[in-house]
């Protein structure tokens, strides 16, 4: 009898603990949008949007296509490919060096632990200093707190060296940048809004009073694109192409 009671208590405690573990909230979902403001005091600021729309196959891996609408109200165009594997997010990044091409780089790791380090460039890296939970628009999200380092010291240019990865939202700059390195230009990117399924899941405190921007962005156009997002000269005679966000096959 006592054993049955102990087992009942054990399973009850296990159920409570399991129910308290929140399911992972993915970052890359079709239709999800991010709205930013980027620039500096001297040159001024511009507002633009990112939207995730559709898949593409590159090097035998399925990637999400990210479109940019810059400035807001202009025609959307393909900007980059990103993918999510487990709790890690990767970005396909252009190589601006002799030989060119692309490389796959880690954009964010939502399974990171304190002490983990991620190299950004020669002499520059970020280190996880803490993990926490944050409530955004009524939803609790896992957050990774990072400190940027340059030549072994905390990076300090214009403001502090702290950055964040927030589950389902992305970095300080959404999916525009993994972390914000101000560099020599002093340009700052501010994530204003993030929408998922037509609902605002992130709103910057300073965005209060800013004119509300559309929660959906149309990728409709009269252009034809290949599966890598490159614009074609016209409708292909055969093969696969994208138009108005839909995939077509010409045999």
From the structure above, extract its key features.
about 250 residues, five-stranded antiparallel sheet, eight-stranded antiparallel sheet, globular
Walk me through what this model shows.
The chain has 251 residues and is mainly beta. It contains one helix and 15 strands. Strand 12 and strand 13 (199-203) form a beta hairpin. The longest helix has 18 residues, at 2-19. The chain is globular. It starts with a helix and ends with a strand. Mean pLDDT is 78; it is low at 10-20 and 210-220.
Form type: globular
Output the structural class.
Answer: mainly beta
Sequence of strands across the biggest β-sheet: 6-5-4-3-2-1-12-13
Give the number of domains: 2
What is the element string, with H for helices and E for strands? HEEEEEEEEEEEEEEE
Beta-strand percent range: over 45%
Question: Topology of this protein?
Answer:
Blueprint: H1 2-19, E1 33-40, E2 44-58, E3 61-69, E4 77-85, E5 88-94, E6 102-109, E7 117-121, E8 124-136, E9 139-150, E10 153-154, E11 162-166, E12 188-196, E13 199-203, E14 239-243, E15 246-250
Antiparallel strand pairs: 1-2, 1-12, 2-3, 3-4, 4-5, 5-6, 7-8, 8-9, 9-10, 9-11, 12-13, 14-15
